[in-house]
Design goal:
Elements: E1 2-5, H1 20-28, E2 32-36, H2 47-52, E3 56-58, H3 61-67, E4 70-72, H4 79-82, E5 90-93, H5 101-110, E6 113-116, H6 131-149, E7 170-174, H7 178-189, E8 193-198, H8 201-211, E9 216-219, H9 222-229, E10 234-237, H10 252-256, E11 263-266, E12 287-290, E13 293-296, H11 306-327, H12 336-339, E14 342-345, E15 348-349, H13 352-358
Parallel strand pairs: 1-2, 1-4, 2-3, 4-5, 5-6, 7-8, 7-10, 8-9, 10-11, 11-13
Antiparallel strand pairs: 6-14, 12-13, 14-15
Amino acid sequence: MRVGVPTEIKHDELRVGLTPGAVLELTRAGHEVIVQAGCGVGSGFADDDYKEAGATVVESPQAVFKQAELVVKVKEPQASECDQLRPGQILFTFLHLAAVPDLANHLLESGATAIGYETVGAGQGQLPLLAPMSEVAGRLAVQAGCYHLESTHGGRGVLLGGVPGVAPANVVILGGGVVGYNAARMAVGLGAQVTVVDASLPRLRQLDDLFRGAITGLFATHDTITRLARSADLLIGAVLIPGASAPRLLERDDILAMPPGSVVVDVAIDQGGCFATSRPTTHEHPTYHVGDTLHYCVANIPSAVARTSTLALSHATLPYVQALASEGLAGLKHNPWLARGVNVHRGNVTHKAVAEALGKSFHESRW
């Protein structure tokens, strides 16, 4: 199969869909790989690295999309990329369609099959392609929070770990999944006072065992969340419903009641955000104030550490790329976890949660 890797064109996106190492695995298996010139520069990979791995380097995205049967990206396709998709082509990338209905419409019109990393499943509710970026985002959420809590960066001037005689920062994490766990690890390591809120008692028990008393785990109720927000120095939104819009956990008045100079980091912004005051920002302009509360809502947080993120993502996606390249959509018959990642197929929405979020009809695909 011909596999194409275009340069990412979303603002501030420096990751790339496949590393040269992943390309080598594909070319050794007899597949043809076409990459756009410069696609890996932001992650530290030169065109010569891809050539040595057996890829053909082309100058334009048009050349990639025209030739590729399978297009592998990182972020959701932008309008100019959607215009180049065609019926029968497979797009494999992050989609987050619940938050971008216009993109869903473009993909439906294209006739292509779009598989979202964030909805590819595994056993016991795991999301193996979302997990590595959630790990990165959870850790970076705390780093961003630390930075912006500094007085010189708009925050209330609180050191996350405090010092002897001065209390540490109060960090509240809403969601105890992969993002929340990694955020808690970082915050605990820096000496903060950490509370994790989750709606699953089994998950709270797991976290209690993992952290051995280093965090406080609380069951998620509206009263608990609003009460904790009023005393938080750093509030991290880390909730996820696969394929669906993020639930709204706090309203504007709740945010306005937070301590002056407090920081909100909404990692759920890719799925629409979990706070009423959240709106997507960029690495170039990452923050804004609502009242006296600083918001950090960057929609592609892992791009800040593009090399680490690209390597982690490519390691996770490679087996699925290999499966698609070898068998195409026919292979989905015996790969139900990958099949669950199909969001759009031949003009239909084929993921139930995505269809519900977009208010569209759900069509179950049979491969």
